[in-house]
Amino acid sequence: MSGVKINTMEEFATVSGLSRPTISKYFNDPKSVRSSTRARIEAAIAEYDYHPNIYAMNQNRKLTNNVGIVVPYISDPVFAEHARALEEKCIEAGFRPTLFSSHGAPELEVEILDLLRSLKPAGVMLAPLGRTPNKAVIEKFCSDVPTVLFDSYLPDTGLGFVGSNNSQFAKLMIDYLCRTGEPPCFLEMKTPANPNANRRRIAYLEAMDALGFDPCVVGIDGTGWAFEEIGRSGGARALIEKSFSSNTVLCSNDRLAIGFLTACFEQKIRVGRESDCDIRVAGMDDHPFSRYTCPPLTTVAQDFNSVSKGTVDLLLDAIEGRDISETYTIFDGRLVMRESA
Amino acid sequence: MSGVKINTMEEFATVSGLSRPTISKYFNDPKSVRSSTRARIEAAIAEYDYHPNIYAMNQNRKLTNNVGIVVPYISDPVFAEHARALEEKCIEAGFRPTLFSSHGAPELEVEILDLLRSLKPAGVMLAPLGRTPNKAVIEKFCSDVPTVLFDSYLPDTGLGFVGSNNSQFAKLMIDYLCRTGEPPCFLEMKTPANPNANRRRIAYLEAMDALGFDPCVVGIDGTGWAFEEIGRSGGARALIEKSFSSNTVLCSNDRLAIGFLTACFEQKIRVGRESDCDIRVAGMDDHPFSRYTCPPLTTVAQDFNSVSKGTVDLLLDAIEGRDISETYTIFDGRLVMRESA
DNA sequence: GAAAAAAATTTACGCGCGTAAAAAATATTG
DNA sequence: CAATATTTTTTACGCGCGTAAATTTTTTTC
Questions:
Q1: The domain that contains A288 carries what CATH number?
Q2: A119 touches chain B (CB under 8 A)
Q3: Which whole number is the average pLDDT over A242-271?
Q4: Do both A81 and A188 map to the same domain?
Q5: Residue B258 and residue A96: Cβ atoms within 8 Å?
């Protein structure tokens, strides 16, 4: 590496013995220059460690190579996992992802979209909070910026949606639970932070009806994203009040289930599918820690990889002008049998 | 809001009846214009929804108002929590944080620093992976960009460091454990992903020595960031091989402890501090999930709030030219007694 | 080897804003 | 009210790069 400091593309063109427009072409698309030229440029980059000024580049480009990733709550390991997978795939595709978390706050979600707009991204992957107040803002944003929704569906918004088949999640688990024991009750938050919860409840009601069982939905209080604590305190109350009509509880998501398991532990209620147990507990999502609860949590695994791949692919297809055939894609979950049910 | 679309600052200056340099001054510092002028500008912003072009602004500014946040692994809830707290405090202070995760990969850490450099941020808050290969790269980066390290210390690097007093963490827990039962063994990864583990082991050895007990360090295999699985599989082996010289195990961190609790459960070893229990288990960090293990995990709580506040404050002091008196700050942990020990 | 095609160069302008300097307008002070 | 201080305007240049058009050079084709 040479000691000379190259600051502008002009200077870099000089030292590499080429013209600036050629260098510019190279940085916009390396394959657009002859391979011998490309080699010279890359040798010069290695020698002078030149990087074009990002701001000057993006100022004039019709489209930047930025993509935005917005998740509702980064501290939720399920979304952290989503974000990680999406970032990886964007980088592979040559885009520069920027990650934002709404931290559960609708106002912050609006601010993030504002900022994203001024970042002129090539596209955005958005998992909305799913709170009604922001509906109009998100629709407006999607009509300005190419946006793919994931995880949480909003009708007629954005280029499309990729997510999980929440109905299938619930049906799959209910079938399993009914086949192997008593039909489950359904434990959920009365006012869920995440709209997928509604699909899961509806699927529960439908599946129970189809199987000829009486449903039993237990709604617990609590707002916000501290699901474990809500599951623990609300679950404890439900146990004391004997709200469950069977010895099997399907929780709306794993984080709720994790809290509920703690409530069971505190009341010395033995959880599991063996004969000496009092209750069976199941969740949905395959949260990274579900494997490590005691007993390990039986759940339905989200197909993170397919969802993230589908999300990135859909966005890139749209950005790069390929026709997007499927605008609504959902992936089935996989039953993960562990000891809790 | 008017229907007219304002694209440039020039146009915006016209419609607001002021000159462009005044508008420019306003956006660089609203307080730098007379309050009556400020009011006119803000009224015009509300009416025309004008936002200056971020790229054009940053191109010429000596300093942007971007700050970078880099964590080693965003899917680790401890770092997700750190990131959330740092983001919040940056936004409050009027800066624009961008979050990056190295995903445990040293190459990615280098790429992130490269990108950050070209983003010309006002400053960076970096929790390094702590792998030796990147030492030189990070030192170089810190000499170019105002950087505060957090969580993981590197000597003589950056503006300063803010983190936890890992020695105190270990001593605090060991004192408690020795006071209430048998002296603990120490469970850790042989090759820890995070350098804080070394401090904790050293503190363990010192504390045991000071109390006149024989130390017993159990190192388990495994690399990477899947700590729970490492704790479970390695812990299971250690239990079978009877590697622990006492009935008390202090784990190097909570995630390891969570996996170890699962190993105990699988082998029907009762965990807790009551008389009918076989083993006591403790961790360090106060991982968000530790409250919900069965039994709930006794641990030492990191002072997330003080660390994140200290990190942001140190960086902003440096950016805004105040003298930074303390360049190495660590915060003590708080004992969180739960049922596991 | 000449003709055609492809790639690189030259020239020149524009992007949207920062910012400096001097002049003009407005506000503050006694 | 004049004198001074503060704020705003006018004018003008520069930042680093995208990009278009015309020209020249290099490569490919037969």
A1: 3.40.50.2300
A2: yes
A3: 94
A4: no
A5: no
Residue A63 in this model has a pLDDT that exceeds 80: no
Give the model's pLDDT for residue A1.
Answer: 63
Q: Is the pLDDT of residue B1 over 70?
A: no
B341 in any annotated domain: no
**Contacting residues of A for B54, CB less than 8 Å apart:** 55, 118-119
DSSP class of residue B271 equals B
Q: In whole angstroms, what is the distance from residue B67 CA to residue B62 CA?
A: 14
Domain membership of residue A119 as a residue range: 63-164+304-331
Q: Whole-model pTM?
A: 0.89
- What is the rounded distance in angstroms from the CA atom of residue A170 to the CA atom of residue A200? 6
Which residues of B fall within a CB distance of 8 Å from A58?
55
Mutate to test the interface with B, among A62, A74, A81, A339 (most CBs of B within 10 A): A74
Contact A96 B115 (CB under 8 A): yes
Does some domain include residue A145? yes
Q: How far apart are CA B17 and CA B228, in angstroms?
A: 62
| DSSP structure string for B311-324 | HHHHHHHHHTT---
Please check whether residue B286 lies inside any domain of the structure. Answer: yes
Q: Do B77 and A81 touch (CB under 8 A)?
A: no
3-class DSSP string for A197-226 = HHHHHHHHHHHHHHHCCCCCEEEECCCCCC
Q: Which chain B residues touch A120 with a CB distance below 8 Å?
A: 55
pLDDT (mean) for B305-318: 92
Mean pLDDT over B268-273 rounds to 91
| Nearest protein residue, CA measured to C1' of C18 | B60
Number of domains in chain A: 3
- For the stretch B186-233, pLDDT in tens is 999 998 888 889 999 999 999 999 999 999 999 999 988 899 999 999
Any CB–CB contact under 8 A between A334 and chain B?
no
